[in-house]
């Protein structure tokens, strides 16, 4: 396979990456439903290949406070994956998981207790695991992930981590933006997949492209 140019990716390659995003997000939503033992619905994801500098604008601006749960990838795929939500969305997920008796999150205080932070970590772990499992099944590639690292900070600060780490080998990330939730409330969630160039090649090659 010739070198992949992420600035000039073909329509067919883009369609495949988009479909990977759709299936991964769908499986992650199913896993979240099972985790909280309640029906979670999901809108059709918006999948785009974007430069790092564009990502923070998508989630509401570089200064918006968000929750980022980051994993490094290994095995046949090298790179990073991040699940990101804003504070209000994170609070809603925590309340769904823990129930109002255990969760005291109040969007006016914008503070998460230690238990709530642990719940957020576990939510990120389950969602990312389901996403990566679907990617592994689709591509027949072995994909491992690190333990989750969670940060609550401005979007620009959180996104600077993968930008610094992978900026020297490329400036593109696959953003999967979706809206999910229950009958009471829908929230936006963002999956950000940042494979190395060789990993993009491995994914597309495994799918015959």
How would you explain this protein's 3D organization?
This protein is an alpha+beta fold. The chain has a single domain (11-206), classed as CheC-like (Chemotaxis protein chec, 3-Layer(aba) Sandwich). Helix content is 46%, strand content 27%. It has six helices and eight strands; from the N terminus they run αββαββααββαββα. It has helices spanning 11-36, 52-58, 87-102, 114-139, 155-166, 197-206, and strands spanning 41-42, 46-51, 65-75, 79-86, 143-145, 149-154, 172-181, 186-195. Strands 1, 2, 3, 4, 5, 6, 7 and 8 form an eight-stranded antiparallel β-sheet that branches. A hairpin with a 3-residue loop joins β3 and β4. α1 (11-36) packs across α4 (114-139). The model has no long low-confidence stretch (mean pLDDT 79).
Protein topology:
Elements lengths: L10 H26 L4 E2 L3 E6 H7 L6 E11 L3 E8 H16 L11 H26 L3 E3 L3 E6 H12 L5 E10 L4 E10 L1 H10 L3
Antiparallel strand pairs: 1-7, 2-7, 3-4, 3-5, 3-6, 4-8, 7-8
